[in-house]
Design brief:
The chain is mainly alpha-helical and about 230 residues long. About 70% of the residues lie in helices and about 5% in strands. A hairpin with a 2-residue loop joins strand 1 (about 5-10) and strand 2. Helix 3 runs antiparallel to helix 8 (about 190-220) and helix 4 packs parallel to helix 8. The longest helix has about 35 residues, at about 150-180.
């Protein structure tokens, strides 16, 4: 759902291609992340055992922080999820901060946040089945069998809450900023800057952290052999 998003129409013969702001901004963010990944990959061979450059220190610090979060929520055995969550964190963070550059944040559209939440939902139950085997399905009948419908509804509520929490906070900020830019010019000289710091930087970073940490916690909760 592209609430308030503008569209660009491209005529390709008899076919009309409609590209929303969300799609265009998402492509720009993906391109930026791919370029960053290529730069890091090209410099890996030059990385030293004892880092001397600021760039290597920053990259290693980001990786270590994400690994420690994964280990704390999912156990040391599943540190490899750090690669996945690092990518998710970077994408959501760049999306949330894109408003600072005048873009409409992709995370202000339910289609983006729902896709991210459904990915978490799939991982939750995939890891539950892989690690729990029959015990995973047995958990739906606990504490008593007639609560199965409620247990199923509870599981479905997870991606719904994840997607709407991120979407609602970012859309609210986008709407407020849109209204702010309709006020008189002499007030706009200082108000937007302050609100951008709150809605784009503070709220954007906070919601990124919350989404990733909740995703780790939900997946870790389903893993039967968590350390």
């Amino acid at each position: 759902m592209d609430f308030g998003s503008q569209y660009i129409e491209l005529q390709l013969g008899s076919f009309t291609l409609r590209l929303s702001e969300t799609i265009i901004t998402t492509w720009i963010i993906m391109a930026a992340l791919i370029i960053f990944a290529v730069i890091v990959r090209s410099k890996l061979k030059k990385f030293e055992e004892v880092p001397k450059s600021g760039f290597q220190n920053v990259v290693e610090a980001m990786v270590e922080v994400m690994d420690s979060f994964v280990a704390g929520n999912m156990g040391d055995k599943y540190r490899y999820f750090g690669n996945w969550f690092f990518g998710v964190f970077a994408f959501i963070l760049f999306s949330n901060l894109s408003g600072l550059l005048g873009f409409r944040a992709p995370t202000a559209d339910l289609g983006t946040t729902a896709a991210l939440a459904l990915t978490t939902f799939v991982l939750i139950h995939f890891m539950g089945i892989v690690t729990g085997k029959l015990g995973y399905f047995k958990s739906y009948f606990e504490p008593v069998p007639f609560l199965v419908p409620l247990n199923i509804i509870s599981e479905i509520a997870t991606p719904v809450s994840l997607s709407f929490r991120l979407f609602g906070n970012l859309l609210g900020g986008t709407i407020i900023m849109g209204l702010v830019y309709t006020i008189p010019m002499y007030i706009r000289l200082w108000v937007p800057a302050f609100l951008h710091i709150y809605f784009d930087v503070f709220a954007g970073c906070l919601q990124t952290f919350i989404f990733v940490m909740l995703s780790m916690a939900f997946i870790g909760d389903k893993i039967a052999d968590t350390d």
